[in-house]
């Protein structure tokens, strides 16, 4: 038990948008972004998915058979072309491009060639437009011994993203792993504010202060590692007694409870899996509705500890790995 968030964060799934559809996709719910576009609450993450046949089969199955409509990738993941091939198979099976929401990311230091880098991603994905483009890892490279800034200021990167949006090549633009301090720096001179910040957040690492602050500026959160990551920390959220008790109450799985908790506070989720069984299980979290007592119990699990590769966060601006505060 730790620094629990208050129960006020129950921005319920009831506030989300349902877009009429048929088959499994009818489960989908969407959040309205500040720029007017709609983004699915549930998506599929593809980080560390690099086997071509597996990626193509997994993404195609997720979309066609399970009803997923949001696929998240990135240049860094080295699988954009694989995702593109999967999308082509989906089109052949009757899925329309406008039904889908595709996210990719450009690394922050690539600001001198954002356009060229973007075109490369679009070619690999086989797309004419992108639904969401994120600055991958919104962080200024600083030498913490000399305090020299080595990388580009984030506002320069952001200006290049704004140009792509103005030209209609990208519908929405956003950020990832962005602290409140860096967020304010971007927003201060922005023509188009970020509408999404993709961050690590789960019941053990709620980041409620970040989510609440940035939402005041119209920026919603997407959660990666929404069910934790015991491989890095040895702390398994899915074996937590509180989560398991609530799962038993709702006749759901622990993963579904963790996902439902995030979605009911207005946070979109992109759990990654290569298992067809887990694809189905995760998507069915959209059917789970937690009550206020459930949510309050889960809120109390927060201990402000990262679960996703803490060694990568050993930076003063993120909080040292042994005290990782995201402010």
Describe the overall structure:
The chain has 327 residues and is an alpha/beta fold. The chain has a single domain, classed as NADP-dependent oxidoreductase domain (TIM Barrel), CATH 3.20.20.100. The protein has 11 helices and 12 strands. The protein has an 8-stranded parallel sheet. A two-stranded antiparallel sheet has the order 1-2. Strands 7-8 form a two-stranded antiparallel sheet. Helix 1 packs across helix 2, helix 1 (52-66) runs parallel beside helix 10 (276-283) and helix 8 (241-250) crosses helix 9. The chain starts with 29 loop residues before the first strand and ends in a 28-residue tail after the last helix. Residues 1-8 and 320-327 have low confidence and may be disordered.
Strand content: 5-15%
The tally of beta strands, per DSSP, is 12
Indicate the CATH topology.
TIM Barrel
Q: Which structural class matches the secondary elements?
A: alpha/beta
Number of helices: 11
| Run of helices and strands | EEEHEHEHEEEHEHEHEHHHEHH
The CATH class name reads Alpha Beta
Helix content: 25-40%
Brief characterization of the structure:
By secondary structure, the chain is an alpha/beta fold. It has eleven helices and twelve strands.
Features:
single chain, 327 residues, alpha/beta, TIM Barrel, 8-stranded parallel β-sheet, two-stranded antiparallel ribbon, 12 strands, 15% strand, disordered C terminus, AKR
Task: Note the topology.
Layout: E1 30-32, E2 38-40, E3 44-45, H1 52-66, E4 70-72, H2 80-92, E5 101-107, H3 114-125, E6 130-136, E7 142-143, E8 148-149, H4 154-166, E9 170-176, H5 180-188, E10 196-200, H6 208-215, E11 220-224, H7 230-233, H8 241-250, H9 254-264, E12 268-269, H10 276-283, H11 292-299
Parallel strand pairs: 3-4, 4-5, 5-6, 6-9, 9-10, 10-11, 11-12
Antiparallel strand pairs: 1-2, 7-8
């Amino acid at each position: 038990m730790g620094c629990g968030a208050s129960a006020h964060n129950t921005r319920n799934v009831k506030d989300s948008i349902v877009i009429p559809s048929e088959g499994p996709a009818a489960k989908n719910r969407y959040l309205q972004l500040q720029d007017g576009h709609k983004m699915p609450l549930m998506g599929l993450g593809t980080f560390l998915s690099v086997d071509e046949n597996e990626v193509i089969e997994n993404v195609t199955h997720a979309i066609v058979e399970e009803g997923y409509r949001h696929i998240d990738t990135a240049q860094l993941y080295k699988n954009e072309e694989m995702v593109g091939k999967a999308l082509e198979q989906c089109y052949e099976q009757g899925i329309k491009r406008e039904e889908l929401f595709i996210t990719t990311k450009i690394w922050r230091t690539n600001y001198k060639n954002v356009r060229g880098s973007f075109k490369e991603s679009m070619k690999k994905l086989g797309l004419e437009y992108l639904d969401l483009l994120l600055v991958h890892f919104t962080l200024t490279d600083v030498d913490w011994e000399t305090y020299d800034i080595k990388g580009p200021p984030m506002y320069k990167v952001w200006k290049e993203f704004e140009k792509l949006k103005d030209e209609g090549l990208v519908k929405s633009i956003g950020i990832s792993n962005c602290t409140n301090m860096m967020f304010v720096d971007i927003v201060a001179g922005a023509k188009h504010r970020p509408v999404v910040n993709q961050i690590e957040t789960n019941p053990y690492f709620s980041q409620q202060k970040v989510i609440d602050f940035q939402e005041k500026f119209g920026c919603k959160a997407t959660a990666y590692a929404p069910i934790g990551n015991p491989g890095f920390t040895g702390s398994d959220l899915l074996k937590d007694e509180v989560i398991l008790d609530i799962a038993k109450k709702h006749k759901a799985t622990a993963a579904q409870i963790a996902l439902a908790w995030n979605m009911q506070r207005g946070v979109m989720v992109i759990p990654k899996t290569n298992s067809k069984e887990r694809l189905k299980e995760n998507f069915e979290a959209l059917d789970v509705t937690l009550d206020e007592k459930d949510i309050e119990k889960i809120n109390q699990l927060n201990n402000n500890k990262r679960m996703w590769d803490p060694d990568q966060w050993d930076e003063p601006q993120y909080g040292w790995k042994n005290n990782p505060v995201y402010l």
